[in-house]
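Person: At home tonight, work slowly through the protein below, taking as long as you need, and write a paragraph about the fold.
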Amino acid sequence: MAMTRFADLPDLVLGPLAGRPDADWYRAPAGKWNAAQIVEHLSLSIHLSALGFEERRARDPMQRRPRTLFERAAYFLLLQVGVFPPGFKSPSRTTPAAPVDRATAETHFRDAHTRFREVERLLLPARATDLFVKHPRLGDLCLPEWLAFHVLHARHHTKQIRQRVAG
């Protein structure tokens, strides 16, 4: 996949669903999220990280807390190698509700993306390396690391969306 910019996430995530009937948004293997839930999960993740930066933006420069061994390994695999380690479960704060409406999920995603882009405009480049928001699996991440995470996270889940709509 050639997409590498956070700005392109709406096209990446929502593109495979454009013009699709509602049924395609709700199709999923047993026990797995459907496309609407995946889109909602991504929007929750983006929204929560944007909120974290908004809440911290007036703080004095911060220092990254030391990462645990698990966080260092997960960070390496995900942000250095680009591989989502198997067995990762979604944190409860980003787990979508069982019934997620297609239009609601899409609106939430677009709104969260817009909100994070505004945070990016406000904080970069000045606060690129001295403001951190904790990721539940990777430890403290600065804004450029969160941008990279959201791109990799969206790529990971877009593969699932494409599988759902192809089925």
Remarks:
- The chain has one domain: 6-83+92-166.
- The chain has a mean pLDDT of 94.
